[in-house]
Write a structure and sequence with these properties.
The chain has 150 residues and is an alpha/beta fold. The protein has one domain: Rossmann fold. The chain is 31% helix and 17% strand. It has a 5-stranded parallel sheet with strand order 2-1-3-4-5, with helices on one face. α2 runs parallel beside α5 and α3 packs parallel to α4. The chain is globular. Bound molecules: 1,3,4-trihydroxy-5-OXO-cyclohexanecarboxylic acid. 1,3,4-trihydroxy-5-OXO-cyclohexanecarboxylic acid (DQA) binds next to loops.
Length: 150
């Protein structure tokens, strides 16, 4: 374990597949906020704080992996990720996040543990600092507040 703690100031927010459809996609499960609403709200929380946020959404596993790999050279020092359906399927995405060795929080809008059994396993949770699942869009906010105070 590194003895020197890195000051978090550069946070990457990653949204996985189908999260571009938030607001219209099963609002009873995922809420009425759009991805733009969520990102705008997170940006507001960092206004005049010195924290830099970067957002990335993709429906493609390879693009998500490549964006995570880029963090090795772009100054990112914390990740908040909702891997969406890849949570339950993607060893490749897990390997990418393990490779870059950045602290991350896993966020889910819905409570994956109260849903279908295939959603109840995550390839990310054991590597994450923490997991927020079931608190809707507020989960991202809480994850960001944690990152900003860690
Ligand atoms: C999700 C839960 C996943 O099971 C699902 O595939 C998603 C969204 C959530 O935020 O609740 O796309 O990650």
């Amino acid at each position: 374990m590194d003895s020197e703690k890195i000051k978090v100031n550069n946070i990457l927010i990653i949204h996985g597949p189908n999260l571009n459809l938030l607001g219209v996609r099963e609002p009873d499960v995922y809420g009425g906020a759009t991805l733009q609403d969520i990102n705008r709200n997170l940006s507001k929380l960092t206004e005049n704080t010195g924290f830099k946020l970067d957002f990335f959404q993709s429906n493609a596993e390879s693009a998500l992996i490549e964006r995570i790999q880029q963090t090795m050279n772009d100054g990112t020092n914390f990740i908040i990720i909702n891997p969406a359906a890849y949570t339950h399927t993607s060893i490749a995405l897990r390997d990418a996040i393990a490779a870059v060795k950045l602290p991350f929080i896993e966020v889910h809008l819905s409570n994956i543990y109260s849903r279908e059994s295939f959603r109840q396993h995550s390839y990310f949770s054991d590597l994450a600092i923490g997991v927020i699942s079931g608190l809707g869009a507020k989960g991202y906010e809480l994850a960001l507040k944690y990152a900003m105070t860690s």
